Amino acid sequence: METNPLKITELVLRDAHQSLLATRMKTEDMLPIAEKLDQVGFFSLETWGGATFDTCIRFLNEDPWERARALKKKMPKTPFQMLLRGQNAVGYRHYADDIVERFVKQSVEVGINIFRIFDALNDFRNIETAVNTVKKCGETVEGCISYTVSPVHNLELYIQMGKTLESMGSDILCIKDMAGLLTPDATKTLITELKKNIKLPIHLHTHATTGLVGMNIQCAIEAGVDMVDTAISCLSMGTSHYPTECIVAALKGTPRDTGLDLNLLEEVNDYFKEVKKNYSEFESDFQGVDINILKSQIPGGMISNMENQLREQNSLDKLEEVLKEVPRVRKDMGYPPLVTPTSQIVGSQATLNVLTGERYKIITKETRQCVMGNYGKLPAPIDEELMAKVAGDKKVTDCRPADLLEPEWDGVCKELGDKYTSEEDRLTYALFGKVALKFFETRGKPLPEKPAAAAKPSPAGAAQPTATPQSGSSIYQVRVNGKDFTVEVVMGGAGTMAPASIAASAPAAALTPAPAPASGGGGSPLTAPLPGSIFSMKCNVGDAVNEGDTLLIMESMKMESEIKAHQSGTVQSILVKEGDNVQTGDQLVIIG
In whole angstroms, what is the distance from residue 286 CA to residue 445 CA? Predict the structure, then answer.
C-alpha cells in the first residue's frame, strides 16, 4: 500500500489563541510545554506573526523577538512558521521595502523557517519584496491565496493566482480560508484543479466557524492536499480550527496516516486545558457554529477581537448590528477578502458606522487609504458615494503602493537616536511607532495589578446616586440600553422626589444624553464620538477653524480616525493631549 502521510501544522501557539482568546496567551504559558510539542513531529509549528507581535507590545508587555528566540531554544527540531502580511509585515500599513527586507532577515535570525506570505487583496505585487527576501535567506516561502466568496471571485481566478504564486518562487501554495467560507464541494474542486495546474505542495488553512470544517478537510485529503492546519482540541472549533487529535485518529492505519502519537498529543492537550483557564475573560462568545458567517465572512480572530473592542466600549449589545454592517461596508469597498489588515479596516469602519449612528460619518484613515488604492488594487469597483466622499478630485493609486514610499530605515534611526539602538527595537518602532515607544518604557517592568472586579452593572433604568450638589437634590447616573445618562433629581414638596430635567413617568427609552456642559467662555465642546486614545493634535488654542476641519486624530480599534470640528469658530481651549485615553462623550476641544 503506497503511503502519502498528511503533514500537520499545529496552530496552538498563534492562530488558535488569536481566534479564541484575542491573542492574549503569554510566552510564560507556552514555554513549559515547548519541549513536548517539539517531540510530536509536526510539519511545522505556527509560533509568530499575525496579531501576536502587536499584542505582545500593546497588551502583554512582552518583547515578541524574545518570544520567538525563547521558543526556538526549547524547540530546535520543529520548523517555525509565521504569518507575514507581505508589504504590511506584521503591521497595518504598507512599509517601505527596506523595512520589509530587514524585518524578514531579523525574523530568520530569531528562528522563523517557513514564511506564510499573503496580501489581503491578493495583489501579489505587495508580496514580491517579502518573497524575494525569504528566498535570499534560504528559507521556505508559502505563498497564499486569500480565499473569499464574492461576485468577482471564481475558480478560474484562483487557478491563475496559484500559477502566479508558483512563478514568483513559492515553495508551497497555501489556500488561506481565514473566515471558514469553504464548503466541501468547493474545497474538493479547488484543490483538485490546483493540483492539475501547479506542481507545488498545497497547504490548507481553514477555520471551524461555520461547522463545515471536518467535511472540508476530508474532501481536501481525498483531493490530495499535502498539509493541513489544526489546533490542539481544547483550543479548537468555534472560531478556531479543526482538532489535531481528530485528524490523527481519523487517518490512523490509512495511506494518509500522519504518524503522530495520540498519547503525546493528549499530554499537550491536558496542559493547554489548564492554561486556557487563565484567559477566560478574553474567550469569544462564539463557541459553537454560526452558519451566518457565510454572509458576514468575518474571520475567527476578528470576531473575538471585535467582541473585546465592543465590550471595552460598553457596546457589546451592538455586535449583531455590526455583523450585519460588515458585508455592506465590504461591498461598498470593492469586495476585499476579510483578512488582516482589510478585516480590521472593514470591521472598524462597520463598527464606527453603527456606534455613530450614521454610515461613514467618521471614515478612518485606513479606510480612506484602502479606497484610494494605497493598499493595492481592490477586486471590484468602489461604491460611487463612498468614493466621492473619500477621493473628491484626488487620483486613485494604480501602481504598487510601496513604489510611492521613500526608504524609511534612516529616518527611524534618526528619530530614535542613541536611545534604542538594536535592530529589533528599531524594527518594532518602525512598525508600531508610538505604541512601540510606550512599550519600551514599560518593558521588563511588571504590569499593574488588575483592579478588583467591579460590581455588576445596574439593570436598565436603575439609578445610582453619584453626588449631592445641594440640599434637596441628587445627581444620578442612569444606564439605559448600555448608555450612561446623568440626571439631577430635586426633592419636591412634602418630601417627594421629582426629577429636575425629565418627567418621573417618562419611559427609559425616551431618555437622551444631556449635552456636556461647556467650559468657561461660552464655547461649545467637541466631544469624543468613541473611546480611544489621542494619537495627534491638529490644532492650537487661538486657531480659527471651520466646521468639518480635522482638529485631532484618535486611535481606536487599532485604526486612526479624524475628529472634525462640529462648528466654525475659534479654538478656546484644548482639554486633552497626545497619548490621553478618552471615553465616548469626553470633552476634547472647546470652540467659541
Answer: 34
